[in-house]
Amino acid sequence: MPVKGLGAVARAFHRPLCLEETAFRDPEPGELLVRMSATGVCHTDLHAVDGDWPVKPPLPFIPGHEGVGVIVKAGREVHGVKEGDRVGLPWLRTACGECEWCLTGWETLCPRAAYGGYTANGSFAEYALAPAAYVGHIPARLTDVEAAPILCAGVTTWKALKEAEVTAGQWVAISGVGGLGQMAVQYAVTMGLHVIAVDVSSEKLWRAKDLGAEITLNAREEDVARRVQSEVGGAHGVIVTAVSLTAFREAIAMTRRKGTCVLVGLPPGEFPVPLFDVVLKRLTIRGSLVGTREDLQEALSVSAESGVRSRIQTQPLETVNDALDQLRAGKVEGRIVLTMSQGSSVL
Ligand SMILES: [Zn+2]
Ligand SMILES: [Zn+2]
């Protein structure tokens, strides 16, 4: 029997989401029906709602890909999770399991992947359906609200650090220490890395220092690449979460010989690669996109055990349009997590 609950539905691009009573069908084989209790709001949700990207989500749809809740019904052929378990619904909703990328542990690159809150309904609702094999398993030490941002912001930065191929004792520079960057600083510290934080906001740099960054540099006030090169000989790994082409240029210039520069931010436009530096210093420039199920489980475990947390403000699901407006206006310091009241009924 289907259940009904509140859903925040995008019916047209660039319009506020419609808060409406929505029916959620029974789970199919291999699928879960999850009663949501918290969901983070990511910039990607904004791009989905505004139809900004070349491949747009099919309307109508429910956004959201940082959802946490409890399984209320498991379909047949579900293994590894059961009713009553807490699970997380991430961006990578499912992948084919058969292509060369899925077979080699790169399911995030699967051409037949589906994305929560984009190509399928997501977590801005009191209930959501999700394929059981792709949900995150929430460790007991994380509350629902704490776990939500790890499902996208957390796993994205954790994966980016892995992609930087740095080892304990080396230097990593985090360019852009907003929501994502602050998580990257914390994960880097738990990995035993020396952290350099770069931003144009002195307030964010103070925060990064509090979180364990040893060197903080304001890109508005000084030549950050020259400082990084002269003070530590360049960073072994650089993670760019900033959405600015200038930050990309600076990031490559602060990378150490043989180092790796990982791009996570997606500013519009293209930028020329400084070939001379890349060739002569044997630099690797690499894009990184969320993370696999394995990366997600690692990010959740490390957060639970080491206290890595997003800076969170909570507000009710009913205020989702206000949350999106705050993001649009650049007013969100860490992460907004929407919470759901549990007053839903059976149809
Ligand atoms: Zn996201
Ligand atoms: Zn695949």
Please provide a brief summary of the model:
The chain has 347 residues and is an alpha/beta fold. It is built from 11 helices and 18 strands. It is 28% helix and 27% strand.
Protein traits:
347 residues; alpha/beta; Quinone Oxidoreductase, Chain A, domain 1; Rossmann fold; 2 domains; 7-stranded mixed β-sheet; 6-stranded parallel β-sheet; 11 helices; 18 strands; 28% helix; globular; disordered C terminus; binds zinc ion
Describe the fold and architecture.
This protein has helices spanning 43-50, 100-103, 144-147, 153-163, 179-190, 202-210, 224-232, 245-254, 275-280, 293-306, 320-328; strands at 3-9, 18-24, 31-41, 67-74, 86-89, 92-94, 114-115, 127-131, 136-137, 171-175, 194-199, 215-218, 235-240, 255-263, 284-287, 312-316, 335-339, 345-346. The termini are close together. Helix 11 (320-328) links the parallel strand 16 (312-316) and strand 17 (335-339). The chain has two domains: 3-151 and 291-346, Quinone Oxidoreductase, Chain A, domain 1; 155-287, NAD(P)-binding Rossmann-like Domain (Rossmann fold, 3-Layer(aba) Sandwich), CATH 3.40.50.720. The chain is globular and about 65 Å long. The model is unreliable at 343-347 (pLDDT under 50). Helix content is 28%, strand content 27%. It binds zinc ion (ZN) (2 copies). The site of one zinc ion has 5 residues, from loops.
